[in-house]
Write a structure and sequence with these properties.
Helix content is 6%, strand content 45%. The protein is mostly beta strands. The protein is elongated.
Length: 1185
C-alpha cells in the first residue's frame, strides 16, 4: 500500500494512560507504525519495534485490544510477525476487507524495564473497488438510435470505497454532457456513483461503442460497460453513372444501361428508378460491408423518350425526404419515313410540282432532289415542329419536264451530319406524256360504192405517243360504240387497241346501212385526227324522227314528226294529243308519212322510249323507230342514298352519292365542319366523278357530319351524311401498381378510348406460370362505358401478381395493359422445419452460410440473433448479404472461421416490415452422423422385386450413402444391399421370392457413423405376390442368389463358427497396425470431405430464387428435414456386382464396414481430434435434433 498522510491522533484502551505523542519517535520505540492505504484483498503490515523486548506488547483496533498472543484469537487473518527477542511486534493482516478499515495503536505494557507505552494512532484505509457497472440500456446489447436525436444513458457503479468517478466515451471520445450523484452503498463506508449522460449519435457512430468507465484508486485499470450503437441515418444522395461523355444524349434504338449507386445509410438505401414520375424498376441490391446500394436500369431508347426524365430515388426508413438524381434524355432519331406528294405524270413542256415531307426527326434533316444523276434545286424549303421534340422537313420542287425525262427516277434524299452513316431516300418514276407522231386510216378506196349489208373493215393506225394513244372512232362527230342490247342487230364491231412496236391500231367493222351513206368516219388520237367517207347504195330508206333530239322540261309537252317511208303509222306512248299529217315525198324516191304527238313528262319519264311503227302493205314490212325522252330536272337524291357511313381508322371511307339529275350535276360541293373540301382533291381525300367522297388514312378526327351540295342548271339539292370512324381501343388510364392489404378489397380500373364502345369488350387475364391457378372465378368483372373494373374482395396473397386488361371492340388490334396487384402483407419467413440444421467443422478454418428467405410487402429488413442475443455484424467473422426482388427477400449470413465454442448455437433470423415480423431458427452444429432417412415407402411390387422410395435426412455435413437391410420372415438372417449411386433416393430391390413376406430397413451413413436401425420410420413390411397373382414381365429379374434350402440351414452355424475362428486368429496379427492407420487417416478424410463437401447437396439446399451477392465458402452443408423433391435415378438396368451378404441374425452395434460407418469410440476420437472435448454432449442436449 501507499502511505497516506492522515492527522495523527492518540487513542489508548481503557487502563492505559493517554498522553500526547510528539512527532519524533517516542521513547521506547525504535519502529513506529504509519498510516497505510490498501486495496481490499491485499496484505498489510503495521510495523512496531520496541526497545524493551521483554515487555508485553499488543495492538489496539479502534480502541479494542487484540491481546499479546501472536496468533490473535478471534482474528484469523491477523497475526504478529517478527522476532520478539529483538522487539519486533509487527501486525500482519492478510486479505484485507472493509472491516479492517480502522485506527490502530501499538501498546507496550508496564515492565521492570520501563513504564507502559502507546504508539501514535495510525489509520489503515481500505479501498474497495467497484465490482460491476449497471448500464441502461443493458450492457452488451445493441441500441438502435436515429442520428441527430438525443438519448439518455444511465450508468450506476457497484459498492466501492471511495466513490468511483464515471466517464462516458462515445466512439472513443469523452462525452461532456454528464451529471453524476454519489449515494450511500449497501454497507457503511461504501458508496455508489450514478451518472447520466445525454448522447446525440451521429452517422459516424454507427457500429461503434458507447462505453461507461469507472475510475477508482482501488483499480489499476478502469472497469467498463458498453453498448453497441446501431445508428440509423439516411443514405447519401444517389449517383447515376452515365456511360460516355454527353450526359443525357442517346440514339433511338440504343440499349441504355444506367447504374445508380447510393452510399451510406443505415439501413442501406432502397433504390427505385422513375420515368416521368412513374416507377420503371424496383429491384436493387445492397452490400452491407461497404454500405452501398446499387440498381441497374436497362431500357431500349425510343423517339418518344425524348425529354423523358429518368430519376433514381434513394431513401430508407429514417430518411426525412426522398433523395433523387435525374437525367433528361436528349434522343436523336432519324425520320421514320419520307413521302412525296403530288403527281409525277405530266405532259411534256409543262411544269411538275412536287412536295417532299419527312416524318419527325431530331435533329432536322436537309432535303435535296435528284432527277436521274442530275440534282434539282428546290423551289422552297420549310421546317415544322414534329413529334417527340423533332422537326418535319418539307421541300417543294417545280420544274419543266421534257420528253427525254420520261422514265427517269425522281429522288428526294434526306441527310444530316447526325446520320452521316445513313441515307434516307424516296424515289418515284417520272411519267412524261406526249402525243402520237402520225395518224392515218386504212379502208376501201375513196369513191367506191358499197351496197347496204356489206361488211366493211376500217383500220386506224398511229405511231408513238405516251401514254399509249387511245384511238377513238367517230361517225359524223359522234363516238362509235357497239350496240348496248344483245338483241339488237350487231351492225358495228369495234376492236380493241393493239400495239406492235411503236405502232398502235384499232379496227372498226361495219355492216353498211343507208345511214352510212356519205357519213364521215373519223379516228382521233389526242390532237391528231384522220377521216374517210363511204358511198352507199341502198334499196329503201330507214325512218327517222324530226326534232326528236330536243330535251324537255318536266311537266312540258313534247311533239314528234317521224318520217317513215311506209304509210301506216302507229305511236306507242302516253299520248296527250295526236295530230296526223298528210303524206309527202321522201329520199330514195319513196313516199313519207308523218304523225305528231304531245306528251306531259316528269323526271320519272326521263330515259323512257316513245316508239313509232310504220307498216307497208306492199313490202309486207314493218319498220319501227323510238325516241328516248331527255327530261331536264334538278338533282334529286334517291331513296337508296346512304346517310351513315362506317369506316375503320387508317382505312378508307367512301361517302356514296345516289342522285338523279338531268343534265347531270355540274358540281358536287362537300363541306365538313364549315370548311369546303377542295374539288381538286387533297392529300387524303378525293371527289369521284359521280360525286362520291373518298377518304383514305381515315382518323377519328374525320368523324362527323358532311354536307353535300349538288347543283345543275335546273336547280340544287343538299344532303347530310354522317361518317362514324371506328378505331381500335387505347388504354388511357391504368393504375400500376394497385396496392391492397391482405383481406381488403380493391378495384383494378382500366379506362380506354375506343369506338365503338361495346358492353362486353373488356376482359381480364392473370399472368403467371402455367402450373399456377390463373382463374378469375373469385373476382368480379364489370364494365361501364369506357371503363372496366376487376373487383377483388378479401384479397389473398395468391391473387398478387400481374393482370392484363384486354379491350377488344372488334377493331384490331386489341389493347392490352399490364397492371401489377401488390398485396401488402406482413413478412412470412420460409420455415422448412421448426429447426433447420447447418453443419460445419468447428476447427476455426471452415465457413458456414445460413440462408433466410422471407416474403413480404413492403420491403423487409432482416436482423440476426445468436442464442437470443443480437448478432454483432461489425464482427469481421460475420458477413450478411441481402437481396430484394419484388416481394421476395433473402439474407445470407456467412460465418467465417467457425469455432465450436463460439458459433455452435441457435441463430434466429427475423424479418420485419411495417405490417409485422416473422422469424425462423437455424441451428449451426458440428459435422456428425446422419439423421435417419424419412418416409421410406413401397412404390411398386412384383413377384421378384420391390421398388422403394425415401427422402434423405440431415447428412451431418458430410456425403452420405444408403444401405438396405432386408429379411424374409420365414428364413433367418439378414441380407444387405448398397444403394448405388449413393445419392439415389429410389431403389429396386431384386432377387426376391414370390409369395414371401419381407421386412426392409434403410440405413444412412457417412464418414462419422450411421443412423442406426432403431427408428421405426426406416422399416417397412411387404409381401411379394405369387406368380399366379401377378404375371411376370420380361424385365423382371430373377433372384441373384437363391436362398438356401432346408438341407443348407444346419450348415449355417458351422460356417459362421469357422469363419469367426479364422478372423480371431488374424486379428491378433494385423489389428494393431490397421487400428493405428485407421485413426491416422480418419481426421484427414474428414477434413477433406468437409472442405470439399457435396456440391449437389449444397445446390439442392439453397433457395433457388436467392441471388448471391458476396463470396461463398463451400465448407458447410445445409439440409432441411422438410419434404424436398427427391432425386430419382433409374436403376432398372442396374445389377450389383456381388450377391447380397447372408447373416445369421441382426447386429445391434451396426454395420461393421470401415468404408461406410464407424463405431461409437471412433466418433469420440474424431471429437478429440478436433479439440472440442465437452462440447458435443451439451450441444445436442440443448437442441433436439
Amino acid at each position: 500500500g501507499v502511505p497516506l498522510p492522515f492527522p495523527a491522533a492518540l487513542l489508548v484502551s481503557p487502563g492505559l494512560a493517554q498522553s500526547p505523542i510528539s512527532a519524533s519517535t517516542p521513547r521506547g520505540f525504535w519502529a513506529m507504525p504509519e498510516n497505510l492505504t490498501a486495496v481490499e484483498g491485499t496484505e498489510v503490515e503495521l510495523r512496531c519495534g520496541v526497545s524493551a523486548p521483554d515487555s508485553v506488547v499488543q495492538w489496539a483496533k479502534d480502541g479494542l485490544l487484540l491481546g499479546p498472543n501472536p496468533e490473535i484469537p478471534g482474528f484469523p487473518r491477523y497475526h504478529l510477525e517478527g522476532n520478539p527477542a529483538k522487539g519486533e511486534f509487527h501486525l500482519h493482516i492478510e486479505a484485507c476487507d472493509l472491516s479492517d478499515d480502522a485506527s490502530y495503536e501499538c501498546q507496550v505494557g508496564r515492565s521492570e524495564m520501563g513504564p507502559e507505552l502507546v504508539s501514535p494512532r495510525v489509520i489503515l484505509t481500505i479501498l474497495v473497488p467497484p465490482r460491476v457497472l449497471h448500464l441502461t440500456p443493458e450492457a452488451g446489447s445493441t441500441v438502435h438510435w436515429v442520428a441527430g436525436q438525443e438519448y439518455e444513458v444511465a450508468c450506476v457503479s457497484g459498492d466501492a470505497k471511495p466513490a468511483p468517478d464515471i466517464t462516458f466515451l462515445q466512439s472513443g471520445k469523452i462525452v461532456s454532457s454528464v451529471s453524476a450523484n454519489v449515494n450511500e452503498g449497501s454497507q457503511e463506508k461504501l458508496f455508489t456513483t450514478e451518472a447520466t449522460a445525454r448522447v446525440t449519435p451521429q452517422s459516424s457512430d454507427n457500429g461503434q461503442l458507447l462505453v461507461c468507465e469507472a475510475f477508482s484508486p482501488a483499480l489499476d485499470t478502469p472497469i467498463k460497460a458498453s453498448v453497441t450503437m446501431n445508428v440509423l441515418f439516411p443514405p447519401g444522395p444517389p449517383v447515376i453513372d452515365w456511360p460516355g461523355l454527353d450526359k443525357g444524349h442517346v440514339r433511338a434504338g440504343q440499349n441504355l444501361e444506367l447504374l445508380c449507386t447510393a452510399r451510406g445509410g443505415n439501413p442501406p438505401a432502397t433504390l427505385q428508378w422513375m420515368k416521368n414520375g412513374q416507377p420503371v424498376s424496383i429491384a436493387w441490391g445492397t452490400e452491407h460491408a461497404q454500405a452501398v446500394a446499387r440498381s441497374v436500369l436497362v431500357m431500349t431508347i425510343r423517339p418518344e423518350d425524348h425529354g423523358a426524365r429518368l430519376s433514381c430515388e434513394s431513401s430508407n426508413s429514417v430518411s426525412p425526404d426522398v433523395q433523387e438524381q435525374s437525367v433528361t434524355l436528349q434522343v436523336t432519331f432519324p425520320p421514320s419515313a419520307i413521302t412525296i406528294l403530288g403527281s409525277t405524270s405530266q405532259s411534256e413542256n409543262k411544269n411538275v410540282t412536287l412536295c417532299c415531307i419527312t416524318k419527325s426527326s431530331r435533329p432536322r434533316v436537309l432535303l435535296r432532289w435528284w432527277l436521274g444523276g442530275r440534282q434539282l434545286l428546290p423551289t422552297d424549303e420549310t421546317v415544322l415542329d414534329g413529334l417527340h421534340g423533332g422537326h418535319i422537313s418539307m421541300s417543294n420542287l417545280t420544274f419543266l419536264v421534257r420528253r427525254e425525262d420520261n422514265g427517269l427516277s425522281l429522288t428526294c434524299e434526306a441527310f444530316s451530319d447526325a446520320f452521316s452513316k445513313e441515307t434516307f431516300k424516296k424515289s418515284l418514276t417520272l411519267n412524261v406524256k406526249y402525243p402520237a407522231q402520225k395518224l392515218w386510216i386504212e379502208g376501201p378506196p375513196a369513191g367506191q360504192y358499197i351496197r347496204t349489208g356489206t361488211r366493211v373493215r376500217l383500220v386506224c393506225l398511229a405511231i408513238g405517243g405516251n401514254p399509249d394513244p387511245s384511238l377513238t372512232w367517230y361517225k359524223d362527230a359522234r363516238t362509235v360504240t357497239e350496240p348496248r342490247q344483245p338483241q339488237e342487230p350487231r351492225r358495228v364491231q369495234l376492236g380493241s387497241l393493239e400495239k406492235s412496236g411503236s405502232t398502235f391500231s384499232r379496227e372498226l367493222v361495219l355492216i353498211i346501212g343507208p345511214s352510212d351513206n356519205r357519213a364521215k368516219f373519223s379516228c382521233r388520237a389526242g390532237q391528231l385526227s384522220a377521216s374517210t367517207q363511204l358511198a352507199v347504195q341502198c334499196e329503201r330508206g330507214a325512218g327517222r324522227g324530226a326534232g326528236w333530239g330536243a330535251a324537255v322540261e318536266p311537266g312540258s309537252v313534247a311533239s314528234s314528226s317521224p318520217l317513215i317511208p311506209p304509210t301506216n303509222l302507229t305511236i306507242l306512248a302516253n299520248v296527250l294529243e295526236d295530230v296526223p299529217a298528210p303524206p309527202r315525198s321522201a329520199p330514195f324516191k319513196g313516199s313519207a308519212a308523218s304523225r305528231s304527238v304531245f306528251l306531259r313528262v316528269t323526271s320519272r319519264d326521263h330515259g323512257h322510249r316513245v316508239t313509232c311503227r310504220a307498216h307497208s302493205a306492199e313490202l309486207h314490212e314493218t319498220v319501227s323507230a323510238f325516241h328516248r325522252l331527255d327530261v331536264l330536272y334538278p338533282p334529286e337524291f334517291l331513296g337508296e342514298q346512304v346517310l351513315v357511313v362506317t369506316a375503320v381508322e387508317q382505312g378508307q371511307a367512301l361517302l356514296p352519292v345516289s342522285v338523279s339529275a338531268n343534265p347531270g350535276p355540274e358540281a358536287f360541293n362537300w363541306t365538313f365542319r364549315g370548311y369546303r373540301l377542295s374539288p381538286a382533291g387533297g392529300p387524303r381525300h378525293r371527289i369521284l366523278p359521280g360525286g362520291a367522297l373518298q377518304l383514305w388514312n381515315v382518323t377519328r378526327a374525320d368523324a362527323g357530319t358532311y354536307q353535300l351540295h349538288c347543283q345543275n342548271s335546273e336547280g340544287t339539292a343538299e344532303a347530310l351524311l354522317r361518317l362514324d370512324v371506328h378505331y381500335a381501343p387505347t388504354i388511357r388510364g391504368l393504375q400500376d401498381p394497385t396496392e391492397v392489404d391482405v383481406g381488403g378489397s380493391v378495384d383494378i380500373v382500366c379506362t380506354v378510348d375506343a369506338n365503338p364502345i361495346l358492353p362486353d369488350m373488356f376482359s381480364w387475364e392473370r399472368l403467371g406460370e402455367e402450373e399456377e391457378d390463373m382463374s378469375l372465378d373469385d373476382m368480379e368483372q364489370m364494365a361501364k362505358g369506357s371503363t372496366g373494373h376487376l373487383r377483388i374482395r378479401q384479397a389473398t396473397l395468391a391473387q398478387a401478381g400481374a393482370y392484363q386488361c384486354i379491350v377488344d371492340n372488334g377493331v384490331g388490334p386489341s389493347a392490352r395493359g399490364l397492371v401489377r396487384l401488390v398485396v401488402r402483407f406482413a413478412p412470412q419467413v420460409d420455415h422448412p422445419t421448426p429447426l433447420t440444421k447447418v453443419a460445419a467443422a468447428g476447427d476455426s478454418t471452415s465457413s458456414a452460410t445460413l440462408h433466410c428467405r422471407a416474403r413480404g410487402v413492403p420491403n423487409v429488413i432482416f436482423t440476426w440473433t445468436k442464442n437470443g442475443a443480437p448478432l454483432d455484424l461489425q464482427d469481421p467473422r460475420y458477413t450478411e448479404h441481402t437481396y430484394h426482388q419484388g416481394g421476395i427477400h433473402s439474407s445470407l449470413l456467412t460465418i467465417a472461421n467457425v469455432s465450436a465454442a463460439q458459433d455452435y448455437a441457435l441463430f434466429t433470423c427475423t424479418a420485419t416490415n411495417a405490417l409485422g415480423s416473422d422469424h425462423t431458427n437455424i441451428q449451426l452444429v458440428s459435422i456428425s452422423r446422419p439423421d435417419p432417412p424419412l418416409g421410406l415407402k413401397v412404390v411398386s411390387v412384383t413377384s421378384h422385386s420391390v421398388g422403394l422410395e425415401w427422402k434423405p435426412g440431415f447428412d451431418g455435413g458430410l456425403p452420405q450413402r444408403f444401405r438396405i437391410r432386408y429379411e424374409a420372415l420365414e428364413i433367418p438372417g439378414f441380407l444387405y444391399v448398397d444403394v448405388l449411386p449413393p445419392q439415389a433416393t429410389t431403389f429396386t430391390l431384386t432377387g426376391l421370392q414370390p409369395s414371401t413376406r419381407y421386412r426392409v430397413w434403410l440405413l444412412a451413413s457417412n464418414a462419422l457413423g450411421d443412423s442406426g436401425f432403431t427408428d421405426k420410420r426406416i422399416q417397412v413390411s411387404v409381401t411379394t405376390p405369387g406368380l399366379d397373382q401377378t404375371p411376370g414381365e420380361p424385365g423382371d429379374e430373377l433372384p441373384t442368389v437363391q436362398p438356401p434350402g432346408p438341407l443348407g440351414l444346419p450348415l449355417l452355424p458351422v460356417l459362421f463358427a469357422v469363419g469367426g475362428l479364422l478372423l480371431l486368429s488374424n486379428a491378433s496379427c494385423v489389428g494393431g497396425f490397421l487400428w493405428q492407420r485407421r485413426l491416422r487417416h480418419l481426421a484427414e478424410d474428414i477434413s477433406e470431405k468437409t472442405e470439399a463437401g457435396s456440391k449437389e447437396d449444397r445446390v439442392r439446399n439453397e433457395y433457388e430464387e436467392s441471388q448471391w451477392t458476396g463470396d461463398r465458402d463451400t465448407r458447410s452443408s445445409t439440409v432441411s428435414t422438410a419434404d424436398v423433391e427427391p432425386y430419382y435415378h433409374s436403376t432398372r438396368d442396374f445389377h450389383p456386382r456381388l450377391p447380397p451378404m447372408l447373416e445369421e441374425g441382426s447386429y445391434p452395434q451396426g454395420i461393421r464396414d470401415e468404408d461406410v460407418a464407424f463405431q461409437g469410440h471412433l466418433y469420440d476420437e474424431v471429437a478429440r481430434a478436433y479439440g472440442l472435448p465437452g462440447t458435443w454432449g451439451p450441444l445436442y442436449d440443448e437442441v433436439q435434433m
